[in-house]
Specification:
The complex is a heterodimer. By secondary structure, chain A is an alpha+beta fold. Helices cover about 15% and strands about 35% of the residues of chain A. The N and C termini of chain A lie far apart (about 115 Å). Helix content of chain B is about 35%, strand content about 25%. The two termini of chain B are about 30 Å apart. The chains are: A alpha+beta, B alpha+beta.
């Protein structure tokens, strides 16, 4: 074994000398290390350095084409490489019969700094591992040697020897990975004449040849990478003196080793800033959001790397039913509210379009388009760039650095788009949390809110086919008006006098049978099922407007019945009646309850008599006066004479339904007579003014004003009544109190 | 009775209304008291339009003579059908917080609707204000379902009151009362017809019956029949001097 190695070395040294003596012309020939023997490597390295120096001198006067300025500007490179070597085979010659199998891999890296002209060098860190087996049967003998070993470790002088890259050649650069030997222990068994002798020794393996072939410079950029192959002798263990070539492969990347911080930025300066999700009545997508993520380097230059794929993912995506709180009715879907659009830029998507991955990345940016299907949609977006070298970067918002990216732009503890909040705040609206229901306008009875959370106000409703939002500053109130013009005036009046945000144009397909206006809810903030109010023609009613279930809050009101003869009532008065009933649906009560009915009749003695529950059967004689004192009794007698059952007459009373603020819609206006304070037999004949407003004080005004002549008709409202504006109660979250 | 309106006349008027409010007025239209009415051919159609101020600070002034109504078929083609206005006023109307509602009424005669079938849209226009309503017209079912004859009589009665046919209205109301003596609608309509005919005492008697019927039919009513009461009081106090 030793003898054989010595032969190899001698032969190799003679070759080395011939190379060293060769003229310095073609670099291929001059630097070729092929078949250099094991012990010639150090000398070869010295030779290579000499060559570089000579060529560097030549470069000073030769008109070499330059590597790009961009490459030459790099002052520090990072080199990563792998060198593999393999050989296996057999040989039968005068030295005997040999078989061998060998595989090794070396992995290393180095930081390279400028050395001589257009060269870079740096200490390497390398690990090498390999396996070797061989069998050598001596010629004409049954004796043989067997070698079987594996090794793993760092090469000799690793950390002290230099890797070397030269860019002096005009046609390319060359790479020398660095320290090239690794010591390993080898065990050889000599089997001869039934006797086995084991020997152990230490040998060196040259894990890399030199790589003299110039590698072309890249057309642009500073990302140098590639794979170089060559054949060269592998000299290890019991290799034959002239062993066949092994296959060496050098795989490397070399990038500027600047102090570079790569990050994936998601642009939040464009649409993202102002986008809020929208739905469509027909279920199609609303206005899309396009987001762009860009891999950027802290150097301000192109990143050192290439993106192989960009994956966009939506996580925690909302699944609110329908597209808004009341559209479509009784929605029960659990579809994702945000999805990627696979058509703008095709990619690999999942079934629910919650992820899309792009593999065709041009440069360092990629975009994805997100489609909204709900006005209250939200999700968290994660975008990941994978580089060709395996590095991964997760996208962060460019301005805030937030990751994941919240869609729409919103606070971490909110599902409401910031842009919407900002718009409200510009109007001076103070906003609470998503689940806040704290509107105080109008104050009403002091109970805040309208049964709709801030999120619900934001997500919104459909009214008359159009999406609307709730008013976060006002209490919202919803009406389904099935009688159109018969109630529209009353609704308008109710809105004006109540100061509520009245939504009076709901269509039949915009309020469910159970009247819950915010029924389509699942994950979004929701505190109570808030009800709308239905106004409809009630064929059982004549001349009677009625809020069935009221006074109370909206959940108590099954409907407002409009009488069949409503169309014949003067429009203004019709509106007052409707507004009056609507006030009952927000728990506003009458000004009093003490009015009563009596029967007047013209008795045979020519007198006008009034029958009450406490009067004699024939009734008590009364007189009817105008408030100016003129007597109208005779004319009344004429008009009611002959009525079989007398004349049913409404008597307005003090603190009764007609009391309090004169111009309030909650004050009755049907009393045409009241009792004189000075004489209980006198009935003043009057026509009550019709109320058109809502009172904020129980005091009597106008005809009820104290000190009025001939008297205050009905005085102030009953205890706990009147002051209607401060009775309003909209939210269904509380039990409506009796007043 | 207001004279029959002609679309051509309305078209000649100067553009109104004059609006000066922060929020536009609300304008709405109902056909036979409904947003999407179903009408039988040969029955009358009563159209109600309402304009309402929606803003305390707002005012709107318009000339009611400019109001127009147009009927369209299902294809959107305008039809040469003239609606007749009734019960309205001719002077300029100014709406404000104190006088916030204006109503307009129109009818189509039974003869006019006899020629209709299918889906229609009707628009009410006054200056920049427009309201739409849809309705369908179908043949009256035969044989008549229970109650349909009564409903038709009352509808026809309404129509005759609108068109000034008080005697026909009274006859129909009496027919209905012959079937249902305590019919509140019939009593109310009869009273209106009698008023129109100048038969005040009978009108008072009809309304007195109506009020009594109301008490019987709605003993637990939380609201009074204010419109009936007002009409009744207007009659029994008529000729007694100015009310305050």
């Amino acid at each position: 074994m030793r003898l054989r190695t010595a032969e190899v070395m001698e032969t190799a040294m003679s070759r080395f000398r011939s190379i060293e003596d060769a003229p310095l012309l073609g670099t291929q020939q001059a630097t070729s290390p092929e078949r250099l023997p094991v012990s010639s490597r150090d000398a070869r390295r010295q030779y290579s350095s000499l060559m570089v120096a000579i060529l560097s001198l030549a470069a000073a006067s030769a008109a070499f084409a330059q590597p790009s300025d961009e490459i030459l500007a790099v002052t520090r490179w990072k080199l990563n490489f792998t060198v593999t070597s393999t050989t296996s085979g057999s040989q039968n010659d005068f030295q005997g019969n040999s078989t061998w199998d060998f595989k090794a891999v070396a992995t290393g890296s180095a930081i390279l700094v400028p050395g001589t002209t257009r060269s870079y060098q740096g200490l390497t860190n390398i690990t090498v591992s390999g396996n070797y087996t061989s069998k050598w049967i001596l010629p004409g003998s049954t004796c043989y040697y067997e070698t079987n070993t594996s090794f793993s470790g760092v090469p000799d002088r690793s950390g002290t020897r230099m890797a070397y890259v030269s860019m002096i050649r005009k046609d390319g650069y060359t790479i020398d990975p660095g320290p090239d030997t690794i010591q390993y222990k080898i065990t050889t068994s000599e089997v001869c004449g039934g006797k086995t002798t084991v020997r152990e020794g230490t040998e060196s393996y040259y894990w890399t040849p030199v790589w003299p072939e110039p590698i072309p410079y890249p057309a642009s950029g500073t990302f140098l990478s590639g794979q170089v192959k060559r054949k060269s002798q592998i000299l290890i263990g019991q290799m034959p003196a002239y062993a066949p070539d092994g296959d060496f492969v050098l795989t490397y990347t070399m990038v500027p080793d600047v102090v570079e911080d790569l990050k994936l930025e998601v642009d939040d300066t464009g649409d993202y800033k102002n986008w809020r999700p929208e739905g469509k009545r027909d279920g199609s997508a609303g206005a899309p959001l396009q987001l762009t993520a860009t891999l950027v380097s802290s150097t301000g230059k192109d990143p050192n790397g290439k993106i192989s794929s960009m994956k966009w993912e939506l996580k925690n995506t909302s699944k609110e039913p329908g597209v808004a709180l009341n559209w479509p009715l009784n929605a029960a879907d659990s579809e994702f509210d945000l999805k990627f659009d696979p058509f703008v830029k095709p990619g690999v998507t999942d079934e629910n379009k919650q992820s899309i991955e792009h593999f065709e990345i041009s440069g360092y940016s990629d975009s994805a388009t997100i489609l909204p299907y709900d006005w209250g949609a939200w999700a968290d977006l994660v975008v990941t760039a994978t580089l060709t070298d395996g590095r991964k970067f997760t996208g962060k918002l460019k301005t805030s650095g937030d990751s994941p990216v919240r869609l729409p732009r919103r606070a971490a503890d909110s599902h409401i788009a910031d842009i919407w909040k900002e718009q409200q705040q510009k109007k001076g609206v103070k906003l609470g949390a998503d689940n806040a229901d704290d509107e105080s306008k109008p104050d009403g009875d002091g109970t805040p809110g309208d049964g709709l959370t801030l999120y619900e106000e934001y997500r919104g409703f459909y009214e008359n086919g159009t999406h609307i939002e709730g008013d976060p500053a006002k209490k919202d109130y919803f009406v389904l008006n099935k009688v159109a013009a018969l109630a529209s005036g009353g609704i308008a009046k109710f809105q004006r006098i109540s100061k509520l945000a009245v939504h009076g144009k709901l269509q039949p397909d915009e309020l469910p049978a159970d009247r819950v206006i915010n029924k389509n809810n699942k994950q979004g903030s929701h505190i109570v099922d808030q009800h709308g109010v239905i106004i409809e023609l009630d064929r059982s009613l004549v001349s009677l407007y009625k809020a069935f279930g009221g006074p109370g809050n909206p959940k108590m009101i099954s409907h407002i019945g409009i009488p069949t003869d409503a169309g014949s009532v003067e429009a203004g008065y019709e509106a007052v009646n409707v507004a009056h009933e609507l006030m009952h649906t927000v728990n506003t009560w009458h000004h009093g309850e003490s009015d009563y009915e009596v029967v007047w009749w013209a008795s045979p003695d020519g007198k006008l008599r009034e029958i009450t529950t406490t009067s004699p059967a024939i009734g008590n004689e009364i007189r009817v006066l105008n408030e100016d004192g003129t007597d109208a009794t005779a004319d009344v007698i004429i008009n009611i004479t002959g009525l079989v059952n007398g004349s049913l007459t409404w008597i307005g009373t003090k603190n009764g339904q007609h009391s309090g603020f004169e111009n309030c819609v909650m004050r009755y206006d049907n009393s045409r007579t009241y009792i004189a304070d000075a004489d209980a037999t006198i009935r003043y004949k009057v026509r009550e003014p019709v109320g058109h407003a809502s009172c904020s004080n129980p005091a009597g005004t106008g005809v009820n004003e104290p000190g009025r002549r001939p008297q205050s008709r009905y005085k102030e409202a009953a205890a706990g009544r009147g002051d209607c504006q401060h009775q309003l109660l909209v939210t269904d979250a509380v039990t409506a109190p009796q007043r | 009775m207001f004279p029959v309106w002609k679309s051509a006349l309305a078209a000649l008027c100067i553009s109104f209304p004059l609006l000066s409010q922060t929020a536009p007025p609300d304008v709405s239209l109902a056909v036979n008291g409904a947003a999407n009415a179903e009408v039988y051919a040969g029955w009358p159609i009563l159209l109600q339009a309402t304009i309402a101020i929606t803003d305390d600070a707002g005012t709107a002034t318009f000339n009611p003579l400019q109001a127009s109504v147009q009927l369209y078929d299902a294809s959107g083609a305008a039809l040469p059908v003239t609606f007749t206005s009734y019960g309205g006023q001719t002077d300029d109307i100014t709406l404000n917080a104190d006088n916030d509602i204006a109503g307009f009424r129109f009818y189509l005669t039974p003869d006019q609707t006899a020629a209709l079938s299918g889906s229609y849209q009707v628009t009410f226009t006054l200056g920049d204000l427009t309201a739409k309503s849809a309705f369908t017209v179908s043949a009256e079912p035969t044989p008549s379902p229970e109650g349909l004859e009564s409903t038709k009589r009352l509808a026809m009665c309404d129509f005759y009151l609108a068109s000034g046919g008080y005697q026909q209205a009274l006859d129909l109301a009496n027919l209905e009362l012959a079937v249902n003596a305590s019919s509140l609608p019939a009593l109310s309509l009869a009273a209106s017809a009698l008023e129109g005919l100048g038969r005040k005492k009978e009108a008072i008697a009809a309304l007195a019956k109506a009020l009594a019927a109301f008490k019987t039919q709605f003993p637990a009513a939380t609201e009074p029949p204010k419109a009936l009461q007002q009409r009744y009081a207007n009659l029994i106090f008529s000729g007694t001097g100015a009310a305050n």
